[in-house]
Design goal:
Layout (H helix, E strand, L loop, with lengths): L2 H10 L3 E3 L16 E3 L4 H14 L4 E7 L2 H16 L3 E8 L5 H12 L5 E5 L2 H13 L7 E4 L21 E5 L5 H9 E3 L14 E2 L7 E3 L5 H9 L1 E2 L6 E2 L15 H4 L9 E4 L2 E4 L4 E6 L4 E5 L20
Parallel strand pairs: 1-2, 3-4, 3-5, 5-6, 6-7, 8-10, 11-12
Antiparallel strand pairs: 7-15, 9-10, 13-14, 15-16
Helix pairs in contact: 2-3, 4-5
Family: Belongs to the G-protein coupled receptor 3 family.
GO cellular component, one term: membrane
Keywords: Disulfide bond, Glycoprotein, Membrane, Receptor, Transmembrane, Transmembrane helix
Length: 319
């Protein structure tokens, strides 16, 4: 959220509701009086990461933050919660803006100077990738036990072609469960043709005359261009095959933030056993255990006799 946007919201008294802004700074109602969100702030995931460390029985960890509000405030929150849980911090490193390859090598060297193998990351995905690459150069693949924040989450980019450096990592992500109704709607969309009675200024889509399962997209003026590029066809005589509207959308996966726009949550698994511990489905955070051949999704917040995680706050962001 930009400072200009906040000032406009304040002076015009216009409420803003965000589906993606997680900065803890935005929780300050004296500054952001008209701002609300439907995602948990970063200090919530910092608390969740402390709970993971506690459950694994670790008492000595290092941290790496990316320079800026996200990384520095996130790690500061983790350190604050970890002190309450009697977890000691071995090394605190920060990735500066425009860090070079040798800077990442030096970070790994300093992490290796202490016996703490567990490393908590509040680092963006590009710098996470560079950090993992540095462990390969240092011949320390598999040495560190990474706990990554939601900027890593379930993304493939940080580990692509260097999966061995991330094996065993645990990453955290606000719970995202695909909305079936959105998939049904999106996959039913078809481009408009001249024969379709779309008003050029219409903001309403139309049901297909002959097929009730098809919706003519009159609202989005760029949908025809998307359809043309996605299906490698053309609506004019450009040399490509002609678009007919009978093509289908393939290789589609719902964007992860869609559930937050819809303010709808679900669960990931009923139960899963990892390292002899049973994790049952209750909560709004999930985390990922990176294995050699797959990524396993697990619910973090637990209410169970076997795994006694601390009960976190209720996730009521609009109150």
């Amino acid at each position: 959220m930009s400072d200009l946007s906040n000032k406009k919201s304040f002076f015009l008294q216009i409420p803003q509701i965000s589906y993606a802004s997680t900065s803890t700074e935005l929780s300050d109602k004296s500054r952001f009086e008209y701002f609300s969100r439907v995602v948990p702030p970063d200090n919530f995931q910092a608390q969740a990461m402390v709970e993971i460390v506690k459950e694994l029985g670790w008492k000595y960890v290092s941290t790496v933050a990316v320079e800026g509000d996200y990384g520095e405030r996130g790690i500061a929150s983790f350190v604050s919660h970890s002190s309450e849980a009697n977890i000691c911090i071995a090394v605190r490193e920060k990735i500066q803006r425009n860090s070079k390859t040798e800077d990442f090598d030096r970070i790994i060297e300093r992490l290796l100077q202490k016996p703490a193998r567990a490393v908590v990351l509040f680092v963006d995905e590009d710098n996470t990738r560079k950090l993992l690459k540095a462990t390969i150069r240092a011949n320390r693949t598999g040495y560190f036990l990474w706990i990554g924040s939601d900027s890593w989450g379930a993304k493939v980019h940080p580990v692509r072609d260097q999966e061995s450096a991330a094996e065993g990592a645990i990453t955290i992500l606000p719970h995202r469960n695909a909305i079936k109704e959105f998939d049904d709607y999106y996959l039913s969309l078809r481009p408009r043709f001249e024969s379709d009675p779309c008003n050029s200024t219409s903001e309403t889509n139309l049901n297909h005359k002959k097929n009730s399962n098809i919706v003519i997209n009159c609202r989005n003026p760029w949908f025809r261009e998307f359809w043309s590029q996605h299906n490698n066809c053309s609506f004019n005589n450009s040399g490509l095959k002609k678009c007919t509207g009978h093509e289908i959308i393939t290789d589609y996966e719902q964007e992860g933030l869609v559930p937050f726009v819809g303010i709808r949550f679900g669960n990931c698994f009923n139960a899963l056993t990892v390292d002899g511990k049973t994790f049952r489905r209750i909560g709004r955070f999930m985390f990922f255990r990176v294995a050699r051949d797959q990524t396993i999704c697990m619910i973090l917040r637990i209410v169970d006799d076997e795994v006694k995680f601390q009960e976190p706050q209720r996730f009521d962001y609009l109150s």
